[in-house]
Amino acid sequence: MRLDVSKTTPYKLWRLALRCWLLGACLGSQAAPFEDTMAQRTLACTSCHGPQGRSGPDGYYPRLAGKPAGYLYNQLVNLQQGQRNYPLMQSLLAPLDDAYLRTLAEYFAGLEIPYPPPAPQPTDKALLARGLQLVRQGDPALQIPACMQCHGSALTGTQPSVPGLLGLPRDYLNAQLGGWKNGQRQAQAPDCMADIAKRLSDADVHALSSWLSSQNVPQVSRAAAQKPPLAPGAKEIRCGSAPW
Ligand code: HEC
Ligand code: HEC
After folding, report:
1. Which numbered ligand comes closest to the C-alpha of 168?
2. How many other CB atoms are found less than 10 A from the CB of residue 126?
3. 226 with 160: CB under 8 angstroms?
4. What mean pLDDT is predicted for residues 49-70?
């Protein structure tokens, strides 16, 4: 028989404590003085996402700091409603209203924190060359658009709701593209990323995640104000989560 951790008392207490922090509901019930700042309220979040949301230590918990606010907000809604599947976050977000989700998104979007250098990656030249080709040009024969078409020519994202693709761990990138391929991750329809991911072979996912995670993040890591002009011959593609 498997133990269902979600029914154990320590787990329930842990969840309660996290909600208490987050909602500032511990005020008054604390022996030590409690400063009601967003940094304090978001300790529940940064316990997984790293101090100031700069990403977790184990190569999986994604960075939140400095990502476009619209993107972070969309993800909080998707995680709360199960279009992205991560039960620990779903239960933590369940009691939070829409206005609070926006406040959280704007708080993390506003943090400007330098990125660490990328972790060492395999040096398989052919693999990295394929990754770069897909990022810059896509593969018209397979109907794969260039990633830069929407994620920006510096790959730092596009305001208000397309995230950057640099500074993300390889395992995280693999999991997200895999999630779109198998339906575990969904975005608002038309879900352009699901269509794109389904056209990527496993080898192409590997090439993309290897190249992307081996790049330095540019000094100016803010998302671009606008999408770059469409490359000659490229097709406009609509995304429900990024109505340009
Ligand atoms: C128990 C650990 C944990 C806690 C606590 C947690 N998160 Fe997460 N969060 C994750 C993981 C793991 C993912 C990636 C899920 C996936 O694979 O789709 C994630 C994803 C996210 C994303 C999407 C990021 C992206 O780039 O797409 C946002 C936004 C987010 N979390 C915000 C928060 C906020 C705000 C809080 C506090 C209210 C919080 N998280 C608390 C583990 C956690
Ligand atoms: C037509 C526009 C478009 C193109 C082209 C595109 N993307 Fe995206 N991508 C998006 C949008 C919009 C989102 C945000 C989806 C959401 O809200 O969940 C996104 C999100 C992502 C994410 C999630 C990042 C995170 O922090 O969780 C990854 C990974 C990603 N795209 C990879 C790629 C790769 C690799 C390519 C090139 C093969 C690509 N995208 C091409 C629009 C695009």
Report:
1. 2
2. 8
3. no
4. 84
Residue 57 Cα to ligand 1 middle (Å): 14
| Residue given tokens 């109505």 in the structure block | 243
Amino acid identity for residue 87 in this structure: P
Tokens standing for residue 124:
């398989």
User: For position 41, what pLDDT does the model report?
Assistant: 86
Sign of CA dihedral 114, 120, 122, 124: positive
Distances (CA, A) of 136 to 61, 94, 192, 196, 229: 27, 39, 18, 15, 13
Dihedral angle of Cα 12, 17, 23, 24, to the nearest 10 degrees = 160
Spatial CA neighbour of 109 closest among 141, 63, 140: 63
Measured in angstroms, how far is the CA atom of residue 230 from the centroid of ligand 1? 32
Span 223-238, mean pLDDT? Answer: 92
The pair of structure tokens assigned to 18 is: 């996290």
Task: Tell me the CA–centroid distance for residue 16 and ligand 2, in Å.
Answer: 34
Structure tokens that stand for 190 in this block: 């038309």
